[in-house]
From TrEMBL:
Residues 460-473 have a biased composition (Basic and acidic residues). It holds the Pfam family Topoisom_bac. It is an enzyme of class 5 (isomerase). Residues 158-595 form the Topo IA-type catalytic domain. This is DNA topoisomerase. Keywords: DNA-binding, Isomerase, Magnesium, Metal-binding, Topoisomerase. GO terms for biological process: DNA recombination; DNA repair; DNA topological change. Belongs to the type IA topoisomerase family. GO terms for cellular component: cytoplasmic replication fork. It comes from the Bacteria.
């Protein structure tokens, strides 16, 4: 009898897999499947809860590494070790027991590097040596799940992806643990009252925003001058510009004088040329995660992290394919089912058109360019009206955007007519450009997007419109702050400026900051660390962010292109062309180089009041209610009596039922034995509730739901 154990990344994924089979039993740690043609003897699905396993912290290796001291740097363990993540011991033990009983283990975590890392970190820590197979799917639909389990792959590629992910994880640990301490401790010598968190990818990302901040701050507006003509033709008016653009007004005036033109006079111009060209624009490429994030940010101001969350929800609802993809292409297989479902998708989108083509086009369909995942597209399951009603507005927006882009493959080109008029006034030629929509084509799938038309009146060659000429004065404009969507694009291109978002596809080999799956998380991290702020979708750097950038300026941590090269090498590890150990060794060399550079690079940092004060640990909060001699103090992750060495074991948690317990709450509990009603607690099923807290005789905190809501006890 062959025992098959399947590891999903999280419970919702396990549930989706189980729905493709018949379930025998369910427990809080696993699901048992009935025998099935794919699993003749049944199978067991268990799961992680995200990361069950994490890298050990410095103090887990050496107690001397717990305190932040310059003399203890660099922190480089001889062998990197892992441990069970806090609060996840029970599930880890369940997975361990099942792995030990298994004959074959299936890695069914997300099909990306982090999914491989999650699985093999658990597998390695458990210490079993069992055959491993890999589930490789792009959709949670029943048919694709069953086909994926029927066609399980070997784990050769999976292991390489794990090597890449582990190299990234360890190098990020090394940079974070060492650089954060290094820069913070040197700055604290200068009087800095807070700390800096530094990361291999997040710090260059902050530096990108800092560079834009400096461009805006240092920008000096300058006037520039052009010659503008205003024309009154038989069928309407229009304007044009001569081919001159100068900062020196005298040069522009000299050209006007050369052609004997005066501002006050009216002249007769002559239309020398009317050039009309029909231009065609093809529908956009299919969405990768970053293009979807960029468009959604521009359209609805959704932060990139929110877009990923919504796309993940739609994936779990079996409406979209796997969202963490950097690919804009699909294979012939996906194209075939999209063709069959095209009418259903039109109905869902509330549109109707006759397809211009049902043949695959290499702009969209190219199996050679599909690696781990294809583009984000709708699944074979076109949602019913009831299912659509159950989607949130944000989910509808994202789903409709993907649907419209996908249907664009089958639609007509967008066609417009571009008109250029050359108008001669006293030998000086003025150029006017206008456009007129001929056929909306695929753009009719996006009704909310405004389409500007810059119409010119009908004129004929030889026509002589009235003309007035004047010098047009304008001012140069500073660069605009990045939006969050533009920041995703800048990370993807490692800071290379791309004015037209469509030009991103021209960059054949993009060596970006982070990966498609991690960029939005990096932006959220630097927000939480107060390095950047986002107001009305514009990203600005904070005083703390400026301090960070002044500190890392001149080091590799400020170089997006260098960090992108690191990312490129990580990809080589995943492809079997690079070495995990080489990457880690090079990261260690980088840390040692940073230690030499840091003191001089920090000399130019200007200390700023960033509204944060240095945490004063071990300061008394309140007299211990038990021993009466010690004091309750903040012990970083919990509160405890300072007399613990003398035997007092009183401790209080920092967080209780999802709520942070403040020093004032602990003080009230110790002095009054109860608090007022507090809001913001969360039950195991994620429902919020309010309750007072009380302290029992053994100094344990208890919920008290009987306290009246208007109780003002302090």
């Amino acid at each position: 009898m062959t025992k098959v154990v399947i590891l999903a990344e999280k419970p919702s994924q396990a549930k989706a897999y189980a729905e493709a089979f018949s379930v025998q039993t369910k427990t809080k740690t696993h699901i048992q499947l009935k025998p099935d043609p794919i699993f003749p003897e049944g199978a067991t699905i268990t799961w992680g809860v995200g990361h069950l396993v994490e890298l050990k912290e410095p103090q887990d290796y050496r107690k001397e590494w717990k305190k932040w001291k310059l003399e203890e740097l660099p922190i480089v363990p001889e062998i990197f070790q892992e441990k069970v993540a806090k609060g996840k011991w029970e599930q880890f033990q369940a997975v361990k027991q099942l792995f030990k009983q298994a004959d074959v283990i299936v890695n069914a975590a997300d099909v990306d590097r982090e999914g491989s890392n999650i699985f093999y970190s658990i597998y390695t820590l458990i210490g079993v040596k069992k055959p491993v197979k890999r589930l490789w799917i792009n959709s949670l639909e029943k048919d694709e799940v069953r086909e994926g389990f029927r066609q399980l792959q070997n784990n050769e590629k999976d292991r390489r992806m794990f090597e890449e992910a582990k190299a990234r994880q360890i190098s990020d640990w090394l940079v974070g643990m060492n650089a954060s301490r290094l820069f913070t401790l040197h700055l604290q010598k200068k009087g800095f009252g807070s700390h800096l968190s530094i990361g291999r990818v997040q710090s260059p990302t902050v530096y990108l925003i800092y560079q834009r901040h400096k461009e805006i701050e240092e920008f000096v507006p300058e006037p520039f001058y052009q010659i503008e003509g205003s024309f009154k033709a038989k069928k309407g008016t229009y304007k044009g510009l001569a081919k001159i653009k100068e900062k020196d007004k005298a040069k522009v005036q000299a050209l006007i004088d050369e052609h004997s033109l005066k501002k006050e006079d009216t002249y007769r111009g002559t239309v020398r040329k009317v050039d009309k060209k029909e231009k065609r624009i093809r529908s956009p490429k299919l969405h990768s995660l970053s293009t979807l994030q960029s468009v959604a940010n521009r359209m609805w101001k959704y932060p990139p992290a929110k877009v990923l969350k919504i796309a993940q929800q739609l994936y779990e609802k079996k409406l979209l394919s796997y969202p963490r993809t950097d690919c804009n292409f699909i294979t012939q297989g996906e194209f075939n089912y999209l063709v069959k479902k095209a009418d259903d998708y039109q109905q869902v989108l509330g549109t109707s058109f006759t397809p211009a083509t049902l043949r695959p086009d290499k702009r969209y369909v190219n199996g050679a360019k599909v690696e781990e995942h294809y583009a984000i597209i709708p699944t074979k399951t076109a949602p019913t009206a009831k299912k659509l009603e159950g989607l949130s507005r944000e989910e509808r927006n994202i789903y409709n955007e993907v649907l419209a882009v996908t249907l664009g493959m089958f639609h007509r080109n967008h066609v417009y007519e571009e008109t250029k008029i050359h108008t001669d006034v006293h030998g000086l030629v003025f150029f006017s450009t206008g456009k007129r929509e001929v056929d909306a084509g695929w753009k009719e799938l996006f009704p909310k997007q405004k389409r500007k038309e810059e119409m010119l009146p009908e004129v004929k060659e030889g026509e002589e419109p009235e003309a007035e000429v004047h010098i047009k004065e304008s001012m140069t404009q500073p660069p605009k702050p990045y939006t969050e969507g533009q920041l995703i694009t800048m990370m993807k291109t490692a800071g290379k400026t791309v004015e037209d978002e469509e030009d991103v596809e021209i960059l054949k080999e993009v060596e970006g900051l982070g990966t498609e799956a991690t960029r939005s998380g990096i932006i959220e991290t630097i927000k939480k660390q107060n390095y950047i702020s986002v107001t009305k979708n514009n990203v600005a750097i904070t005083d703390k962010g400026i301090m960070l950038c002044e500190a890392i300026e001149g080091t590799l941590l400020s170089s997006p292109s260098m960090t992108a090269k690191w990312e490129a090498y990580l990809r080589k590890i995943g492809e079997g062309e690079g070495s995990k150990q080489t990457f880690i060794d090079n990261t260690e060399k980088f840390i040692r180089k940073l230690m030499k550079e840091a003191p001089s690079s920090l000399e130019k940092v200007q200390l700023r009041d960033i509204g944060e004060t240095k945490k004063k640990w071990n300061e008394p909060i309140v007299t211990c209610p038990s021993c009466k001699t010690g004091a309750i103090v903040d012990r970083y992750k919990f509160y405890a009596c300072s007399g613990y060495k003398d035997g007092c074991k009183v401790t209080f948690p920092k967080r209780l039922a999802g709520k942070t317990l403040t020093e004032n709450m602990i003080k009230t509990l110790c002095e009054k034995k109860k608090t007022k009603v507090l809001k913001g607690f969360k039950s195991k099923n994620k429902k919020t509730f309010s309750t007072a807290l009380t302290l029992d005789e053994d100094y344990n905190i208890k919920f008290d739901f009987g306290v009246p809501a208007k109780d003002k006890t302090k």
